[in-house]
Description:
transport; ATP-binding; nucleotide-binding; 6-stranded mixed β-sheet; ABC_transporter-like_ATP-bd; ABC transporter, ATP-binding protein; alpha/beta
Amino acid sequence: MNCIELRNVVKRYGNVTALNNVSFAIECGERVALLGPNGAGKSTTLKLIVGLLKPDSGEVLVKGLEPISIQARRIIGYLPEDASPYLMLTVRENLEYIASLRGVDNVKERVNKFLELLALKPYERNRVMSLSRGNRQKLSLALALIHDPEILLLDEPLNYLDIPTQERIISLFNSMTNATILVSTHIMSIAGRLANKVIILSGGQVVWQGNISDLRKFGEENEPVESIVARLMESVR
């Protein structure tokens, strides 16, 4: 079954076409990287899937439902690129509030789990406005995960995080064996750590999609995957 499907999607911002006839499908349980340079349409794609935007034409489906449906919204966890938790609330208050809105059972137990998991326990009584960018990012990740979503949409999830924290987050995602994950990034090495399939966007179009390992078929022996991707993206400019 497809958990995410885009059919001939077009999205414009005024005279700018952000997505131009984009189609792809992601089966439930797959881990897919949405790869491309800045401005390729990655964030727009995620916002369409989560229901924050509507396509100008085409169709976006989440398990066969419109993204704005209550059923679809319940099963999605979303981390935007510039996530903004409630700045005047504390870390714990943010987590407890969102967990309650999401209908999480045993809210305090769930909140405590993520405070420990993401090393936020020392900051639980701090207002978000006082946190570093890295700790805000960790809180935003916890907010996306607090309700144990079936589908996880991640826009540059490792931004602002130091290397040890990145490794901890990658291990966390890789432990979520039943979740469908779509991660947007412009860094090939991150794509390779978090996904085994890739959809490459450039100029609002799908350049290539398939297994990451198959990308090497398009390059010379020992050529870095990053340069192969760059050449594919260049082909539609």
